[in-house]
Design goal:
The complex is a heterodimer of chains A (113) and B (116). Chain A has 113 residues and is mainly β. Chain A is 0% helix and 52% strand. In chain A, strand 4 and strand 5 form a beta hairpin. Chain B has 116 residues and is an all-beta fold. Chain B has no helices and eleven strands. In chain B, a hairpin with a 5-residue loop joins strand 4 and strand 5. Chain B starts with a strand and ends with a strand. The chains are: A mainly beta (113), B mainly beta (116). Chains A and B meet through strand 5 and strand 10 of A and strand 5, strand 9 and strand 10 of B.
Chain lengths: 113, 116
């Protein structure tokens, strides 16, 4: 059972544009929602994360919007750059128990110069 | 952020042999480590969770006798792929957590396994 659904599968954005990736989750027990960036042949790197007690978090060009009632969260990349071209994964986990992350299916972002 | 290393970064082996992959937390003590497998252009799939000094918990469908996990210390976990076959070829990634419930999960750089 896929507990975190991510869309779109791929995304092409012009340099300077806004990239938006969406995720929806099913398990209301999730406490923590991170976004990871992965370049080919590398491990995922934490980009930004949010908890359900806030609706938005911004770090530099990256913003997470969180809608608890809709069980959805999204990543916005402002002023997208070619160096942002990578695969982005949303994830979710509980802060109790095993605390294992459940990942979305990933979005391949290509920022064209 | 905290650093997690993996060794080797890539390995090629013959079918039927065993391969050991190490995962180390370099600047923190990891009470919990996770092993993931990632096939090309796919997401990360959790294989198992290991806690220092106890047996690993495997996800459904993961063969515990094939993928041996040992978490001998607070900074080292190993994954041994026994009797490897071509279908085991994949990108294996570990991650680590401290004992703080709200902490960040840091990932290693991954190990590319190719079984001929």
């Amino acid at each position: 059972q896929q507990q975190v659904k991510q869309s779109p599968q791929s995304l092409i954005v012009q340099k300077g544009g806004i990239s938006i990736i969406n995720c929806a989750y099913e398990n209301t027990a999730f406490d923590y929602f991170p976004w990871y960036q992965q370049f080919p042949g590398k491990g995922p790197a934490l980009l930004i994360a949010i908890r359900p007690d806030v609706s938005e978090k911004k770090e530099g060009r990256f913003t997470i919007s969180f809608n608890k009632s809709a069980k959805q969260f999204s990543l916005h990349i402002m002023d997208s750059q070619p160096g942002d071209s990578a695969t982005y994964f949303c994830a979710a986990r509980r802060d109790t128990g095993r605390r294992a992350l459940t990942f979305g299916s990933g979005t391949r972002l290509q920022v064209q110069p | 952020g905290a650093v997690v290393s993996q060794h080797p970064s890539w390995v090629i082996c013959k079918s039927g042999t065993s391969v050991k992959i190490e995962c180390r937390s370099l600047d923190f003590q990891a009470t919990t480590m996770f092993w993931y497998r990632q096939f090309p252009k796919q997401s990360l799939m959790l294989m198992a969770t290991s806690n220092e000094g106890s047996k690993a918990t495997y996800e459904q469908g993961v063969e515990k006798d094939k993928f041996l996990i040992n978490h001998a210390s607070l900074t080292l976990s190993t994954l041994t792929v026994t009797s490897a076959h071509p279908e085991d070829s994949s990108f294996y990634i570990c991650s680590a957590l401290t004992g703080i419930s709200t902490d960040t999960q840091y990932f290693g750089p991954g190990t590319r396994l190719t079984v001929l």
